[in-house]
């Protein structure tokens, strides 16, 4: 009888748990199955409540599903994790923090999932997050590095000049964000060290440029000019005001800006092209990251990656991130850059900045 | 017993008797609500700290106040907060990550669009074009990533148009220089009911609701540099167009079936139920709302010009009345009730203007405790509910009262 009394609760526990977990896993799948234009929202709405109701037990499944179905699905999962963590805190219910930490430390897990894991830890136990964060200094997730880098910058600042140089240089190896890089480069400059920012970020500096072609009434953006059909560096074409031909141009800007006003003069209602070759010893996934305040298009090996016809609303580094696959050998990167008719002083810029990096923001350098 | 009951009722939190402020510039996007009271000499009742940036206005539904903000080095963390009306305590917070671009002019932020509510749900839109629907208890109802859906929907200065609910349709203006739309979505599912191609031009103005009369179906009025467009919120059909241009920053205001549009100064328009182009009632360049939305109160329309001069005109005739120079500069729009306007400048100076007399007069003011280390500014439009004014900056949400 005593045995039965002990056994019975376990049997009930197992019986209740198994179907419940299956239902929760189905609900997590529904969150991850959401798609474009709200596809799957109806099922996800009901599933979200099921998952949250399950409490902390659902967190491992949420983490496992994150980073596999797209950024909007990740938000469904993230918001469920957010609500579970809040409810657990109110109920003084423990979270499986050891499991979440183990998940975070496994870099084979998806970037977005590991970011979520850290956020859950930070929300539930700030002391634990503080303990973990310094160890993320070389993490493959750009955002996860940031806190650790900031700690090292603070430490370097506190050191005497002789020692801070080494600390800043070590941090420079890890830093990927522009603002933090600027801070480190600025500090190193005062210590007599010039940081090669184009190399650090992976800006492409050497190009061939051709132009100007027309962009009257902004029609040049959609017009297929000869460089979009062929890239023959020794061939002459009809431009906006006469014959045009490719010519070499190297950016000297420490932010890698290619300013078309320099080779062509300060023009309006024009289109320019820049082409470069990017050599690699082995094929790999990469990102082309562009900053540009003109109308632009980017092709990789003849394939259009993205285009945008917005003018003079601002530019910044990594404004546009284009995932791509670079092949072994020579990769051709072609950029179209359109200048419009505006005449205000803040519309002079006819330029872009392009870098090649991995998803962490680590520069990928060409082999030639 | 009656005395005890009266005392008990008097001790209840006020919002049980107050009306909601469910969207940008209140119930009818008119900047006013009939039963609100603006205190002449306001003081701070409570302060709720906020973790990031934001110029979206707070909204009030029953006993809850909702506000959004964005945080993180690139403002990629998007927050939706629910605070208790009575004491400002946080009831819930949800945080998502931006799926669209988060670049903006440094003065604005990713939490620029005021959320809206149909009384059962809160719809939070961000400049990254992330749109989240929650019930009032913080349960996620649906999500959209509109830049995921339409990759060229963005504005490198930042988006700011606030969504609007009409019946079962959530109208979301995501107009910009490139891929430019206004979308009507099902409030229950977030699915598209309709999607209109819109002028390829940056647009920060917010839609408003117009009705021919109290019994007529509502029409959503979209505003752009081209002018105004009346759209059936159920079908997305274009009902009428006004093509003489309009502001892309300040929004129209509607009163008694007339639209007061920031177009060539202010142009008062009377659309027809039959779909013909709206008739012009009057036009005045003597009252120019610049980038700030006008407000209508007690038969007058009020607007700031770029110098911070509050101007007023008669809504029937457009005849300009008095002017009053206030301490500027302003980014947020004025709101009004009980014969008073509340105007908050960028420096956080709350100025209450008495408009009941023949000339406007400053009735009272209070300086909000902005953070100096971050050069914090107030760029948002206040909300009104009951006897209170709600104002937010980056660092805090304040409730002001008597």
Descriptive terms for the model:
heterodimer, A: 368 residues, alpha+beta, Jelly Rolls, 3 domains, 6-stranded antiparallel beta sheet, 13 helices, globular, B: 402 residues, mainly beta, Methylamine Dehydrogenase, Chain H, 4-stranded antiparallel beta sheet, 2 helices, disordered N terminus
Description:
The complex is a heterodimer of chains A (368) and B (402). By secondary structure, chain A is α+β, with helices and mostly antiparallel strands. Chain A has three domains: 2-136, no CATH class; 142-195; 201-357, Jelly Rolls (Sandwich), CATH 2.60.120.380. Chain A contains 13 helices and twelve strands. In chain A, the strands form three sheets. A six-stranded antiparallel sheet of chain A has the order 4-1-6-11-8-9, with no helix packed on it. In chain A, strands 5-12-7-10 form a four-stranded antiparallel sheet. Chain A has a two-stranded antiparallel ribbon with strand order 2-3. The longest helix of chain A has 31 residues, at 2-32. Chain A is globular and about 75 Å long. Residues 1-18 of chain A have low confidence and may be disordered. Chain B is mainly beta and 402 residues long. Chain B has a single domain, classed as YVTN repeat-like/Quinoprotein amine dehydrogenase (Methylamine Dehydrogenase, Chain H), CATH 2.130.10.10. In chain B, the strands form eight sheets. Chain B has a four-stranded antiparallel sheet with strand order 1-32-31-30, with no helix packed on it. Chain B has a four-stranded antiparallel sheet with strand order 2-3-4-5, with no helix packed on it. In chain B, strands 6-7-8-9 form a four-stranded antiparallel sheet. Chain B is globular, with a radius of gyration of 20 Å. Residues 1-17 of chain B have low confidence and may be disordered. Classes of the chains: A alpha+beta (368), B mainly beta (402). The A-B interface holds A 34, 36-38, 41-42, 44-45, 48-49, 52, 70-72, 74-76, 78-80, 82-83, 86, 146, 177, 179, 293, 306, 308-311, 313-316, 319-320 and B 73, 92-97, 99, 101, 103, 105, 130, 132, 138-145, 148-149, 151-152, 154-157, 176-178, 185, 189-192, 200, 202.
């Amino acid at each position: 009888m005593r045995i039965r009394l002990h056994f019975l609760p376990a049997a009930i526990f197992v019986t209740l748990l198994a179907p419940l977990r299956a239902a929760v896993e189905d609900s997590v799948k529904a969150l991850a199955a959401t798609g474009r234009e709200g596809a799957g929202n109806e099922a996800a709405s009901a599933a979200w409540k099921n998952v949250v109701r399950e409490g902390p037990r659902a967190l491992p499944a949420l983490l496992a599903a994150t980073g596999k179905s797209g950024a909007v699905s990740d938000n469904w999962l993230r918001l469920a994790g957010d609500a579970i963590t809040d409810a657990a805190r109110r109920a003084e219910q423990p979270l499986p923090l050891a499991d979440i930490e183990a998940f975070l430390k496994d870099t084979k897990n998806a970037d977005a999932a590991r970011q979520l894991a850290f956020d859950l830890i930070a929300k539930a136990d700030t002391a634990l997050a503080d303990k973990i964060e310094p160890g993320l200094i070389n993490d493959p997730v750009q955002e996860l590095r940031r806190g650790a880098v900031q700690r090292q910058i603070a430490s370097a600042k506190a050191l005497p000049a002789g020692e801070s140089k080494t600390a800043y240089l070590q941090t420079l190896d890890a830093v990927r964000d522009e603002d933090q890089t600027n801070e480190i480069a600025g500090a190193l400059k005062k210590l007599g060290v010039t940081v090669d920012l184009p190399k650090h970020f992976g800006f492409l500096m050497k190009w061939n440029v051709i132009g100007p072609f027309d962009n009257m009434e902004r029609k040049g953006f959609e017009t297929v000019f000869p460089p979009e059909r062929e890239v023959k560096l020794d061939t002459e074409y009809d431009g906006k005001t006469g014959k045009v031909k490719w010519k070499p141009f190297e950016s000297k800007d420490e932010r890698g800006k290619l300013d078309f006003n320099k080779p062509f003069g300060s023009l309006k209602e024009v289109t320019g092209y820049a082409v470069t070759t990017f050599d690699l010893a082995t094929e790999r996934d990469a990102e082309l990251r562009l900053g540009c305040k003109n109308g632009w298009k980017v092709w990789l090996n003849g394939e259009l990656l993205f285009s945008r016809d917005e003018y003079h609303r601002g530019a910044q580094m990594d404004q546009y991130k284009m995932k791509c696959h670079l092949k072994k050998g020579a990769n051709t990167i072609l950029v179209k850059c359109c200048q419009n008719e505006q005449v205000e002083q803040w519309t002079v810029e006819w330029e872009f900045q392009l870098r090649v990096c991995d998803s962490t923001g680590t520069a990928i350098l060409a082999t030639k | 017993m009656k005395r005890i009951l009266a005392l008990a009722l008097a001790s209840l939190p006020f919002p049980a008797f107050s009306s909601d402020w469910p969207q940008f510039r209140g119930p009818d996007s008119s900047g006013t609500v009939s039963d609100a009271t603006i205190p002449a000499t306001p003081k701070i009742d409570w302060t709720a700290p906020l973790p990031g940036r934001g110029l979206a206005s707070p909204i009030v539904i029953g006993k809850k106040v909702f506000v959004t903000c964005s945080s993180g080095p690139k403002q990629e963390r998007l927050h939706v907060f629910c605070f208790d009306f009575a004491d400002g305590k946080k009831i819930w917070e949800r945080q998502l990550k931006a799926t669209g671009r988060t670049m903006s002019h440094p003065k604005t932020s990713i939490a620029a669009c005021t959320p809206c509510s149909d009384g059962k749900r809160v719809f939070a839109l961000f400049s990254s074009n992330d749109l989240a629907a929650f019930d009032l208890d913080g349960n996620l109802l649906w999500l959209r990533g509109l830049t995921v859906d339409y990759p060229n929907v963005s504005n490198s200065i930042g988006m700011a148009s606030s969504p609007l609910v009409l019946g079962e349709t959530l109208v979301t203006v995501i107009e910009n220089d490139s891929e430019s739309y206004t979308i009507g979505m099902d409030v229950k599912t977030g699915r598209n009911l309709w999607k209109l191609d819109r002028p390829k031009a940056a647009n920060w103005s917010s839609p408003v609701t117009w009705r021919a009369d109290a019994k007529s179906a509502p029409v959503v009025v979209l505003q752009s540099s081209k002018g105004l467009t009346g759209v059936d919120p159920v079908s997305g059909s274009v009902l009428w167009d006004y093509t003489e241009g309009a502001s892309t920053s300040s929004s129209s205001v509607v009163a008694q079936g007339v639209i007061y549009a920031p177009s060539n100064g202010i142009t008062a328009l009377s659309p027809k139920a039959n779909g013909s182009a709206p008739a012009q009632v009057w036009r005045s360049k003597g009252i120019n709302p610049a980038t700030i939305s006008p407000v209508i109160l007690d038969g007058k329309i009020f607007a700031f010009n770029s110098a911070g001069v509050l101007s007023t005109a008669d809504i029937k005739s457009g005849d300009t009345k008095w002017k009053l120079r206030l301490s500027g500069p302003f980014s947020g729009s004025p709101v009004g009730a009980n014969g008073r306007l509340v105007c908050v400048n960028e420096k956080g100076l709350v100025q209450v203007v008495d408009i009941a007399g023949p000339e406007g007069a400053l009735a009272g003011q209070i300086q909000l405790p902005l953070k100096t280390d971050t050069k914090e500014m107030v760029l948002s439009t206040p909300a009104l509910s009951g006897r209170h004014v709600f104002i937010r900056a980056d660092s805090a949400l304040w409730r002001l009262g008597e």
